Amino acid sequence: MKTHPLEGKIAEIKFDSGLEFRIDFLENDQLRWTSTREEDKGSTDVETIHIEEYPGGIFSVDWVEESGLCVSYTIDTANHYVKSFMTFTDDHYRGGRRPFTHEGPFHFILENGEPDLAPL
Questions:
Q1: I need a surface site. Which of 9, 52, 80, 117 has the fewest CB within 10 A?
Q2: What are residue 118's phi and psi, to 5 degrees?
Q3: Which stretches make up the MoaF-like domain (predicted)?
Q4: Residue 109: what pLDDT?
């Protein structure tokens, strides 16, 4: 049984910062991110996520990476958009954490890269 409606889905994200990812929502509250931009294409990892669903196809997906990078996505599946807030270690910032925000289109895709138009 699925733990959330995104489980088993694949998405592509192209942030305004230039970062691009394929996101695989896996079983057991796991997510695999894979960079698709040329500079670091293929970089990947699996993260344990916390996910909340809100009315209107809005999801909050959050995780902490092994490096200490904290990532929070607010995904609007109805409007195909995602906003991200991240923090990472930087002693020059308050609390030793530097914030970073970016946003961009979010689209579900099939394994072959074609659009996934199936409803959640």
A1: 117
A2: -65, 140
A3: 8-91
A4: 98
Tell me the backbone φ, ψ of residue 16, rounded to 5 degrees. -65, -15
Cα separation values, 31 from 56, 91, 92, 113, Å: 22, 29, 31, 18
Per the CB < 8 A criterion, the answer to whether 15 and 102 are in contact is yes
With 0-12 CB in 10 A as exposed, 13-18 as middle and 19+ as buried, what is 88? middle
Residues of the chain predicted below pLDDT 50: none
Q: Which domains does the chain have, with CATH numbers?
A: 10-109 (2.40.128.20)
What is the spatial distance between Cα 86 and Cα 103, in angstroms, rounded to a whole number?
A: 11
Tokens 């930087």 correspond to: 90
> HEC states along 47-69?
EECEEEEECCCEEEEEEECCCCC
- Provide the total of helices (H) and of strands (E) in the chain, helices listed first: 0, 9
Model pLDDT, residue 3: 87
Residue 2 is predicted with a pLDDT of 83
